[in-house]
Every structure is written in structure tokens, then in C-alpha cells.
């Protein structure tokens, strides 16, 4: 099998159309702006881009780096776009019940996301999922997407609770600090962690197993630093902007 064969992943071919149809049906009751619709479908395109291209073939058999790219798309990038694309009325309807309020709490969503990320990157479940691409790997990917939507919810939606910009900035900083050790650990380990890639059919692009793992770890940690720090900076600057009138008033007092 050529490593550059285009993938036809049943997961993406089933999940993306299902999410898209569900979203379009929901828009009939909960209208959204064009910007939100575009953002939501950008998330769907990201999923297709890493599962219906040679990225899928290489990720399953050859390089850890590209599999981590898929994981990042499912656990961070696509969920952020999906959550941001939800109209506020639809978001309120989703979180109206007690389960929705509980799962989107920052004190629940962040631990669930971290637990999902770290648990699936342990050697045994990681290798087991790659050896069962038609079953267990789908469970892994779906759990990434769900956990990713939950972790972004307190930041990108103001229901069922509205966090102040300062609280959102702190939340994102904590998320980055707690998640970053995973990528750094992969980059610093002196031996290959996953047997599937250690026994790949061939080495692509001149990368050894350990070099592939190191690049994957550094890339993952760098990506999280860029994404989380960028959104952290946005909300931190908003916090400073909101506080500026109060500071001016305080300074003007005799």
C-alpha cells in the first residue's frame, strides 16, 4: 500500500455529514449569522482535510507526527470552530438541562479534556486503537471531539454561565500549563513509545522512529503554546480594556 494513498475514512464520511445536517436542521429554529455558519463548516473541512487525504494513511501506519496532527485537529482546532459556530440560542438549548450545565463547567470540562488527552496517549491504548482502526480508533477520535467541545465551551459561549474575560484568560493559561507536559514528554523520551510506529512498514522522509516522536512532541507543545496563548492574549487584552475606564475614574478622584 502506498503511504500517499488518499484515505476514505468511514468515521469522517459518517461524522461530518451527520454534524453538518444536524447543524443545518438546527438553524431552522435557531438562526445564526453568516460568520458563525462559516466558522462551523470550517471546522468540518478541517476534519475532512486530515481524514480523507494521505494524512490518514501516513498517520495510521507510518508517522506519529501526522497522527498527532489528527488528534490536535479533533481535540482542539475543530471543536473550537464548532463551538464558536453555534448560535447563542442553540447553545442555550443544549445546556438547558443539568447534564449540560455540569459538563460545560470549567471545573468539569478541563479535567475531562486533560484526562482524555493523557489517557489515549498512554502506550497501550494508543497502540490498541491503531491496531483497531475500524472500532477502538473511532471511539478515541469521538472522545477527543466531545472533550474538545467541552473544554472550549466556557471560553467561546456565554451560556449556561458567563465568565469574565479575566476568568477566561486564567482558564486558558491553566489549560496550556497542564496540557503542555504531554508534548514535551514525547519530545524528551529517549526511546520510542509506540510499537506501531516502531515497526512501521518503511521509514518516510528519512525520519527514524525517535526523530519522528521528537518532532511530534515539539510540534504538539508548540501548537498548544500558539493556540492557547493567542486566545489567552485576546481575553487578557479585553480584560485590560474593560478595566481601563475604572482605572481612569480612580485616578481622577481627588
By helix and strand content, what is the structural category? Answer: mainly alpha
Number of helices: 12
- Integer-rounded radius of gyration: 20 Å
Silhouette: globular
Helix content: over 70%
Q: What's the order of the H and E elements?
A: HHHHHHHHHHHH
Uncertain stretches: none
Compute the average pLDDT: 91
Got a strand count? 0
Please give a handful of descriptors for the protein shown:
globular; 254 residues; mainly alpha; 77% helix; 12 helices
Please tell me about this protein's structure.
The protein has 254 residues and is mainly alpha-helical. The protein contains 12 helices and no strands. The chain is globular and about 65 Å long.
Topology:
Blueprint: H1 10-27, H2 34-51, H3 54-61, H4 64-84, H5 88-94, H6 98-103, H7 106-120, H8 123-131, H9 136-156, H10 165-188, H11 195-198, H12 209-252
Helix pairs in contact: 1-2, 2-4, 3-4, 4-9, 4-12, 7-9, 7-10, 8-9, 10-12
Short description:
The chain is mainly α and 254 residues long. The protein is 77% helix and 0% strand.
Amino acid at each position: 500500500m502506498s503511504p500517499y494513498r488518499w484515505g476514505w475514512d468511514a468515521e469522517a464520511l459518517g461524522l461530518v455529514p451527520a454534524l453538518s445536517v444536524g447543524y443545518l436542521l438546527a438553524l431552522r429554529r435557531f438562526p445564526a449569522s453568516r460568520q458563525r455558519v462559516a466558522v462551523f463548516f470550517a471546522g468540518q473541512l478541517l476534519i475532512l482535510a486530515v481524514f480523507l487525504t494521505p494524512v490518514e494513511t501516513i498517520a495510521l501506519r507510518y508517522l506519529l507526527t501526522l497522527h498527532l496532527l489528527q488528534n490536535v485537529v479533533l481535540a482542539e482546532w475543530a471543536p473550537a470552530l464548532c463551538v464558536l459556530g453555534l448560535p447563542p440560542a442553540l447553545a442555550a438549548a443544549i445546556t438547558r438541562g443539568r447534564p449540560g450545565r455540569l459538563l460545560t463547567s470549567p471545573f468539569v470540562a478541563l479535567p475531562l479534556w486533560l484526562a482524555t488527552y493523557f489517557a489515549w496517549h498512554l502506550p497501550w491504548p494508543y497502540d490498541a486503537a491503531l491496531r483497531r482502526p475500524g472500532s477502538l480508533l473511532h471511539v478515541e477520535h469521538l472522545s477527543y471531539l466531545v472533550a474538545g467541545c467541552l473544554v472550549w465551551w466556557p471560553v467561546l459561549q456565554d451560556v449556561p454561565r458567563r465568565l469574565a474575560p479575566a476568568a477566561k484568560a486564567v482558564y486558558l493559561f491553566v489549560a496550556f500549563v497542564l496540557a503542555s507536559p504531554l508534548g514535551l514528554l514525547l519530545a524528551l523520551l529517549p526511546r520510542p513509545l509506540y510499537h506501531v510506529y516502531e515497526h512501521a512498514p518503511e521509514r518516510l522522509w528519512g525520519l527514524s522512529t525517535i526523530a519522528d516522536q521528537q518532532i511530534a512532541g515539539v510540534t504538539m507543545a508548540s501548537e498548544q503554546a500558539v493556540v492557547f496563548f493567542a486566545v489567552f492574549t485576546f481575553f487578557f487584552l479585553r480584560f485590560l480594556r474593560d478595566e481601563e475606564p475604572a482605572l481612569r475614574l480612580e485616578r481622577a478622584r481627588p
